[in-house]
Design a protein that fits this description.
CATH architecture of chain A: Distorted Sandwich
Largest sheet of chain A: 6 strands, antiparallel
Strand content of chain A: over 45%
Number of helices of chain A: 2
CATH superfamily of chain A: Hypothetical protein YojF
Shape of chain B: globular
Helix content of chain B: 25-40%
Protein name (chain A): YojF family protein
Number of strands of chain B: 7
Number of strands of chain A: 9
InterPro entries (chain A): DUF1806 (IPR014934), YojF_sf (IPR036492)
Structural class of chain A: mainly beta
Pfam families (chain A): DUF1806
Structural class of chain B: alpha/beta
Distance between the termini of chain B: 25 Å
Largest interface: A-B, 11 and 8 residues
Oligomer: heterodimer
Strand order of the largest sheet of chain A: 1-7-8-9-2-3
Number of domains of chain A: 1
Order of helices and strands of chain B: EHEHEHEHEHEHHE
Shape of chain A: globular
CATH topology of chain A: Protein Yojf, Chain: A
């Protein structure tokens, strides 16, 4: 994973628009969040291999980045993205890692199921 | 003579409350017609009341009612809810939002527009809203542009855009301002304003009595 390159991610978002895709969207504080710091409220979610088709997708911010995908009936949104997989030219693999390197958020899009 | 018509453009119900409600109440008292165009219903807000009385389904309707109550408290004559999705303003095509702004400006021909200072207003919706207003007005002929007063509050913003240049003493309109703030009861639980712990009038005047703006320079 490399630090996000805004224009490369935007190009990939353009390439993947207007087609049926599989999405993995995830957010997590980690299972030990409240064990380590009792004031924190542990929460997590993911949805994997749901089908999605977006009409336009944009990445914005100055890092960490935000991505919004506009769909026919609604939106997909992720905030806090820092890294992407530069070598993957077919899929868009993005994640946000905290200062310790742990994954906090992930957004992945692919024509094939994950 | 200056036409007393103002257009206020913010993305969320409650954006009007702390920074401009006193100014708007004062202007309306002085004969201004005010239109408030609110881009979203704040439906992605995290404040749900304490204890929570809203959920993700009911929040937009609750916030719509809060917005209407706030506007009534201020005296705003015309409220437009533009139907954009909360948190997504920055991802809309700029032309789409600009066209909505252009239509409002054409219809109302305000002499004053109040919005967020693009780039210095923290929330991406704030920045995207201010940017659209500024872009749209910038395209107008210089002699037809309304004056634009901006709110800004990002950390260190004064190093970049200097000090505000417009100050409104709203101490005579604190009643309306506090009613505007407390109308947003799902969003704000401010002990100084409600219940037994109400702050003294002096303290409220100190904290809420002045509103300040930056005149946007198109040069």
């Amino acid at each position: 994973m490399e630090i996000i390159n805004l224009s490369e991610v935007q190009q990939m978002l353009n390439k993947l628009q207007e087609q049926e895709l599989y999405i993995h969207l995830e957010l997590t504080t980690g299972a030990y969040a409240s064990h380590v710091d009792s004031s924190r409220h542990p929460a997590a979610n993911f949805i994997t291999n749901a089908k999605v088709c977006y009409t336009s997708g944009k990445i914005s911010g100055a890092g960490p980045y935000r991505v919004g995908l506009k769909t026919e009936q609604g939106w997909v949104y992720a905030e806090g993205l820092t890294h992407y997989e530069e070598s993957d030219k077919e899929r868009l693999i993005m994640a946000g890692h905290d200062t310790q390197g742990k994954l906090v958020v992930a957004l992945q899009l692919s024509r094939e199921p994950f | 003579m200056l036409k007393k018509r103002a257009l206020v453009v913010f993305p969320h119900p409650d954006d009007e409350a702390f920074g401009t409600s006193g100014t708007l109440a004062k202007m309306i008292d002085e004969g201004w017609e005010v239109t408030y165009a609110c881009l979203t219903l704040g439906e992605m807000g995290r404040n749900m009341g304490v204890p929570p009385f809203a959920n993700r389904i009911t929040l937009p309707e609750i916030r719509k009612l809060e917005l209407e109550e706030s506007c009534r408290s201020i005296g705003i004559q015309d409220v437009r809810m533009l139907g954009f999705h909360d948190k997504m303003v920055e991802f809309e095509e700029p032309e789409v939002i600009d066209e909505v702004m252009q239509k409002l400006l054409d219809e109302l021909q305000p002499s004053l527009v109040i919005t967020f200072y693009p780039g210095y207003s923290v929330h991406p919706d704030h920045d995207a809203t201010g940017a659209s207003v500024v872009r749209t007005i910038q395209r107008m002929p210089v002699d037809q542009r309304p004056v634009v007063h901006c709110l800004a509050f990002s950390n260190g913003c004064r190093e970049w855009i200097g000090e505000p240049d417009v100050f409104q003493d709203v101490t005579e309109y604190l009643d309306q301002k506090l009613k505007s703030i407390t109308a947003h009861r799902s969003q704000f639980q401010i002990p100084e304003l409600i219940g037994d712990k109400k702050a003294s009038k002096d303290k409220i005047r100190q904290r809420f009595g002045t509103e300040s703006f930056w005149t946007y320079s198109f040069d």
